[in-house]
Write a structure and sequence with these properties.
There is one protein chain. The protein has 356 residues and is of the alpha/beta class. It has two domains: 102 residues, no CATH class; 154 residues, Trna Endonuclease, Chain: A, domain 1 (3-Layer(aba) Sandwich), CATH 3.40.1350. The chain is 65% helix and 12% strand.
Length: 356
């Protein structure tokens, strides 16, 4: 038997003796009240009670039974008291155990630290309301401060870690962007090489896909609609003007359009001249022919126009042609040589070849 159990038994005996000594005279004085109560229980029992009311044996028996009842009641009361005392002691023991456990705890993550801080605050409130635990308030408060500092430190570390992670993500995204840009630039250069933009200044839009159109526009090509000599209708094209030459988009288009027409008609040798001579020359049956594209500029420079006509007559006698972009200007150019608007090029082309 443990020392604690011996103490509980001794306490029970002391309480039983004291309560018996205090309460027994009182119970004896209310004997008549109990007798009246018993009388009401049963008529038969009342008859027996009246018969033996003044019998000494019955009184002794009644005292014995009553005493047994009182002792049983006292036993139950004392048992309940002891249980409550034991329960309180157990609660105190558990509370103390939890407090000591909290004082020793070493939290390594924010979730555990936050949980421990809440528990310590709760225990501090309990200690403040109990004299038995007052001495633990200060250690708990110190522990609380340490945990709060640790929590703040972990927050800073997590914040720093998040910043570093974000920087890595940004770097990864930038690298991916750069990779895609490099890849896009490489694909662009491949496409430009395939289109040969240094050689070709005009592209028919219907022959291109959306990506090619986009890239050509990035490279300075402009979309225009012009009447095409070969197809005899307006078509949409992308044109890149010459940076150093004063050639209009219309002029560039007509050179391209005439070249297409000549190729379609079986002309094999065709040359384009950007600065000197005629705009287009081609060879047919051993003879060279010339085509001059005019938008009206030479009309404003009569001297240059005369020099141009003299040059064409000398180099290509009866083998040259003015193609005028504006039909209203055709009569003015016709004064100097064979001239036509773009929609009549096929018939004038035949006439040019026959005259030669």
């Amino acid at each position: 038997m443990t020392k604690q159990q011996e103490t509980d038994i001794n306490l029970f005996l002391v309480i039983a003796i004291v309560l018996t000594a205090i309460l027994l005279p009182t119970f004896l004085k209310i004997k008549n009240w109990f007798l009246q109560t018993f009388n009401k229980i049963s008529t038969i029992f009342n008859s027996v009670l009246k018969y033996v009311e003044h019998t000494t044996f019955f009184q002794i028996l009644l005292y014995i039974l009553f005493t047994i009842f009182i002792i049983y009641v006292l036993y139950q009361i004392i048992k309940l008291i002891i249980h409550k005392i034991s329960e309180k002691r157990e609660n105190i023991k558990n509370e103390l155990k939890e407090i000591k456990k909290l004082l020793k705890i070493k939290a390594t993550n924010r979730e555990k630290i936050s949980e421990s801080i809440n528990l310590i605050n709760e225990k501090i409130r309990i200690c403040e309301n109990s004299k038995r635990f007052v001495k633990y308030i200060e250690p708990l408060e110190k522990k609380l401060i340490n945990l709060e500092l640790s929590e703040e430190e972990l927050k800073q570390k997590e914040h720093l870690g998040n910043l570093q992670l974000r920087e890595k993500e940004i770097d990864a995204r930038n690298e991916e962007k750069e990779r895609k840009l490099r890849e896009s630039e490489e694909n662009k250069q491949i496409l430009l090489r395939r289109l040969r933009i240094e050689e070709n200044r005009v592209f028919k839009k219907s022959d291109l896909n959306d990506k090619e159109v986009e890239i050509l526009k990035e490279e300075g090509f402009e979309q225009v609609n012009q009447f095409d000599i070969l197809e005899k209708r307006f078509i949409s094209v992308l044109i890149k003007p010459y940076e150093k030459l004063n050639h209009s988009r219309e002029h560039i288009f007509l050179v391209w359009s005439v070249t297409r027409f000549l190729e379609y008609n079986g002309i094999k040798i065709i040359e384009e001249h950007l600065t000197k001579g005629a705009d287009i020359t081609f060879k047919y049956k051993g003879k060279w022919f010339a085509i001059e594209i005019e938008t009206g500029k030479l009309l404003r420079a009569p001297k240059q126009l005369k020099e141009k006509v003299n040059y064409l007559n000398k180099q290509y006698p009866n083998r040259w042609l003015f193609i005028v972009s504006n039909e209203k200007l055709v009569p003015r150019y016709a004064k100097f040589g064979l001239s036509t608007q773009r929609n009549r090029v096929p018939e004038m082309f035949e006439k040019l070849l026959k005259n030669a």
